[in-house]
Amino acid sequence: MTIDDQNNLPDDINPAENLAAITDDISAALREAGKEQNHVTIVAVSKQHEAARILPVLETGHRVFGENRVQEAQAKWPSLIEKYPDTELRLIGPLQTNKVKEAVALFDVIESVDRIKLAKALAKEFEKQDKRLKLFVQVNTGEEEQKSGIAPNDVVTFVDECRDQLGLTIEGLMCIPPAADDPAPHFALLAKLAKDCGVSALSMGMSGDYSIAAQLGATHVRVGSAIFGPRPAK
Ligand SMILES: *Cc1c(COP(=O)(O)O)cnc(C)c1O
Question: Which residues contact 31 (CB under 8 A, 6 or more apart)?
Fold first, then answer.
């Protein structure tokens, strides 16, 4: 293995091939579960990877990408989006209210709506920019103290508040299960909560568990290292 000296990453990783293999894995998993008709969108998580590594994936025709930091995305995405205007950029990391303006300007979807203060700031900014993003509510399925997200018991009320009081359209729910847990019960819980609040999209599953997430009803899986390889050490 040789090292790409620009970013200290192995240069024998082929993101386009990896993406194709993941697509096949998901098809096989859906077939096994008798859910061939389901469509699962792969959100290619390009955080910490530079534009040069993202470009080959755009060149394959893939258009859905996830980033977890507004500032980092602002630095590398505008030029890529100029070249590929039909890109869908999704924010999957925590959003501070002082970054809402920039986030609304750059992203198409925010998957990490996790508190009413943020929902209010988004509603206000949508008016200002006359631009409405698709929104997902992040659910803290493991009720971990250090993790953001709405507690499972509060999700229905929170989604109703976003809809009725703020006029927001909530498209789906998102979760990041505790790293040490079997993810399946968390995915099943997220699917149940989505039914309870009448939303249809489910963003769940990452590099290690996208197949099981697909079998449990994911409409979006967020896959980083299985596509792009390890993230550069900081
Ligand atoms: C980084 C990240 C991912 C992708 O993780 P991998 O294990 O590299 O696939 C998915 N979701 C969120 C919220 C992330 O921050």
Answer: none
Q: Does the CB atom of residue 206 touch ligand 1 within 6 A? A: yes
Phi, psi of 213 (to 5 degrees): -60, -45
Strands 3-4 and 9-10: antiparallel
**Cβ of 174 below 6 Å from ligand 1:** no
Q: Kindly report, residue by residue over 61-103, the tens digit of the pLDDT.
A: 999 999 999 999 999 999 999 999 999 999 999 999 999 999 9
**Residue from 222, 223, 231, 234 to probe ligand 1 pocket by mutation (most atoms less than 8 Å from CB):** 222
Query: What distance in angstroms lies between residue 68's CA and the mean position of ligand 1's atoms?
Result: 8
The finding on whether 218 has its CB within 6 A of some atom of ligand 1 is no
DSSP state of 139: E
Cβ 44 under 6 angstroms from ligand 1: no
Give the pLDDT band of residue 231 (cuts 50, 70, 90). Answer: confident
